[in-house]
Design a protein that fits this description.
Pfam families: Lactamase_B (PF00753), Rhodanese (PF00581). The protein is about 30% helix and about 20% strand. By secondary structure, it is of the alpha/beta class.
């Protein structure tokens, strides 16, 4: 679900901010207003929470801004602007197939008591822009994917196969961050990315950034404002993690204005159709808890327990464009189906089918779940056990169990066939990603054990780990 929090108390009475959390994307959208009219920056495709925030504030949406052509989701900007007869601000340099107000760095626009200044801030993308909104003595920086809380937006999304381009954009990102760093220190910093999104250049501890963050705060903690240009660029590009599979498709979808179209509703299917879908190779995604899935599931289905990460992992696993996806749940979790359909539509996966499992339906697929204590007990005499670590590269480098095979969760679908023979004990940090990976491997015919336990238990039980270089 998307939630809004009013940050108006951090500003003068003439300027208020409502931050709309978009946990399915790890992003935030912002509504900045003067009590009568407002500017919305980087809205998601699902406009419900944005419009509820405007209604709660009793303001009219008169302007919508996209800081860049997004790589991680389908923008709701064009549709929101059209619904409200608002200006849609987007860089004049971007080639798009829909009507917008093309803006350039240095442009100033007035909306009620708000003055909005456009800053050219290339780096995250070639034509990225940020927006400074001012009213009276108060200013806020809506930085999109440029200057984030403790980091910046990554620069390798335009062409993941071009390190030279990523390095060149990293230098531009440094220049942009330095320009933003010269704003008044009390300017409130309101980025879009950095709250779980893979668009951030580095992981950020969200717990440190729950309160207001200013531009001035960043001078002590943000590498872009602490390091020289070349060391910063080198450190940034060296730290990039994996790119979710759906990202490469978002730019063309957004350029043609895919978000203008209403979301296609889900198509409920009966049990016989569900069986046919499995036989035809459809991706049947079970939203129930990973525990319930392991105890019994429809053979051929995969487990992606409903959470804010659902769209990311479905987008990674399922061949584009979301080929024949069927979402299933039981009666207890049926309300999650609508949430999942919405989350998938946010990344351009539409036309999915849904099914509610009947209580009497036999669910004959099953595999074992275990904890680290079970692994410790079984390890000594299990010469056919294969420990599969599905965490990401940086987690693996931080320490792993001797003899483990590293296979990040997003690679399980196409590299799982290369795993050694034997019983696969699949683990991650918490059990969530391991549940996904175990189900995909089980779907492929492997014997699996889902290690559904916290990584911290490894140290508690005295299991030795080794660094990646060992």
């Amino acid at each position: 679900m998307q939630d809004s929090k009013n940050m108006g108390n951090t500003a003068s009475p003439a300027l208020s901010v409502a931050a709309i959390e978009v946990p399915s994307l790890g992003n935030r959208c912002h509504l900045v207003h003067d009590g009568e009219v407002g500017l919305v920056v980087d809205p998601p495709r699902d406009l419900g929470a944005v419009e509820r925030a405007a209604e709660a504030a009793e303001v009219e949406i008169v302007a919508v801004a996209d800081t860049h052509v997004h790589n991680d989701y389908v923008s709701g900007g064009p549709r929101l602007a059209r619904r409200h007869g608002a200006d849609h601000l987007l860089s004049a340099e971007e080639a798009v197939a829909f009507e917008r107000v093309g803006v350039r760095g240095g442009d100033r626009l007035a909306y009620g008591a708000l003055e909005v200044e456009v800053l050219d801030t290339p780096g995250h993308t070639a034509h990225h822009q940020s927006f400074v909104a001012r009213a009276g003595d108060t200013s806020v920086l809506l930085s999109g994917g440029s200057l984030l809380h403790g980091t910046v937006g990554r620069t390798d999304l335009l062409d993941p196969d071009s390190p030279a381009l990523a390095r060149r954009l990293a230098r531009a990102q440094w220049d942009s961050a330095r320009a933003q760093g010269r704003l008044r220190p009390d300017t409130l910093l309101l980025p879009t990315h950095g709250f779980g999104s893979f668009c951030a250049g580095a992981a950020v501890d969200r717990g440190e950034h729950e309160g207001p963050v200013t531009v001035g705060d960043q001078h002590a903690v943000n590498p872009a404002l602490r390091l020289d240009r070349e060391p910063f660029a080198a450190e940034l590009v060296a730290g990039f993690g994996p790119i979710p599979g759906h990202y490469e498709h978002m730019d063309p979808l957004n350029r043609r204005g895919a978000g203008l179209a209403p979301v296609r509703p889900a198509r409920p299917v009966d049990g016989a159709t569900l069986v046919d879908a499995v036989a035809a190779g459809a991706w049947v995604v079970d939203l129930r808890s990973r525990r319930d899935f392991a105890l019994g599931h429809l053979p051929g289905s995969v487990s992606v327990e409903y959470s804010p990460q659902l769209a990311t992992y479905v987008g990674w696993l399922v061949p584009w464009p979301g080929r024949d996806v069927v979402l299933v749940a039981d009666a207890e979790a049926a309300d999650r189906l609508a949430d999942a359909v919405r989350d998938l539509a946010g990344i351009g996966i539409e036309g999915v089918r849904t099914h509610v499992l009947a209580p009497a339906r036999p669910l004959t697929g099953r595999y074992r779940r275990a904890g680290w204590a079970d692994y410790l007990d079984a390890d000594a005499g299990a010469d056919r056990m294969v420990l599969v670590d599905v965490r990401q590269r940086e987690e693996w480098r931080g320490g792993h169990l001797p003899g483990a095979v590293h296979l990040p969760v997003q690679d399980v679908g196409h590299r799982g066939r290369d795993l050694p023979p034997g019983e696969l004990w699949v683990h991650c940090r918490s059990g969530y990603r391991a549940g996904i990976a175990a189900s995909v491997l089980h779907r492929a015919g492997r014997d699996v054990v889902h290690v559904d336990d916290a990584w911290e238990r490894v140290a508690e039980l005295g299991l030795a780990t080794v660094p990646a270089a060992a």
